[in-house]
Amino acid sequence: MSTDTAGTAARDEDPRSGGPADSAFVRACRRQPGPHTPVWFMRQAGRSLPEYREIRANVAMLESCRRPDLVTEITLQPVRRHGVDAAILFSDIVVPVAAAGVDLDIVPGTGPVVAEPVASREDVERIHPITRDDVSYVDEAVRMLVKELGGTPLIGFAGAPFTLASYLVEGGPSRTHAKTKALMYGAPHLWHALAGRLAEVTLAFLRVQVDAGVSAVQLFDSWAGALSEADYRRFVLPHSQAVLAGLADAGVPRIHFGVGTGELLTAMAEAGADVVGVDWRTPLDVATRRIGPDKAVQGNLDPCVLLAPWPVVEAEVRRVLEQGRGAPGHVFNLGHGVLPETHPEVLTRVVALVHELSARPAHQG
Ligand code: 1CP
Question: I need a labelling partner for 149 at 20 to 30 A (CA). Which of 118, 130, 143, 266 fits?
Fold first, then answer.
């Protein structure tokens, strides 16, 4: 059996076998009952962990994403330490964009920086479609991880067209996304050409991860909350829809997440994912009404709460679980990524608490 077939088999196996397809995480994504509410953390691999800082000490961020041995080790670190219900591939949203020919770097303390920001049709044309060979290190890392993880599901991910376009047009992180919006409003054809090209790159990148055996994918549209619902529907939704529709036959749950998207949740739910991620601003019961009955929710503890004394953390975890109870499926997470100053012990305690409070002993696994 080729490794490719093995990856597919891992997803399609008998649900009673205890493999990733039967995990608490995948079951919750599919709105099926499970043994407890699953929990993982966005940015669980990374600077909150001393073992991560050590392994990254002399390796640049992009280089570490291109070394399957490092990707595997860093991805496994939070699984070993916290006992989370899912691993997320260690990579970055700009990895496929670099593979598509864009000259960029991930600068420590800043984030992605693009050498020549996109401003013209020629700039868009230079972003070439990618194949497995352009990101073979990701294919290799996913296959290694699937073997190492056993029954723990691995989440693959990519950036959504709007969030990726923002880095490409601004040249780096931006608070206002002013140049991106100016391009959107002032040159809508160019905008749609750029977003369309990025949707192709993103879909191809996610396909590589699915073919290598990931158990779920998350599409990060982290900065979509900068848009009004009308602009989101006109300029962004069709492109994110194209990515998610392209994975409809992939056989793995699709998660779609953004920050500050309270007003966009109904529209984002229409993008076609199985699970919608919610930040801490919108209570999960309110979010569930906006998202609708046919999708699970993921979230939404404020990452800053983890910096507070334990009784506060415990009360907030209880509240999030309570407000998530009415959702057709709930994956516990933060409302955005783990902050670097978070004490890792707190994350471990949160995992144990979520499992304890949500345990359903009657579940026949
Ligand atoms: O030197 C370092 O350690 C660099 C910090 C870092 C890390 C650990 C960056 C730079 N990226 C990553 C890894 C990463 N990026 C993961 C790892 C998997 C995990 O969650 O454990 C993931 C999922 C991402 C995705 C990512 N990159 C997003 C979407 C998620 C989110 O947080 O909203 C975004 C917006 C990025 C861009 C990016 N890359 C790095 C930084 C610091 C940023 C944000 C820059 C900004 O504020 O605009």
Answer: 130
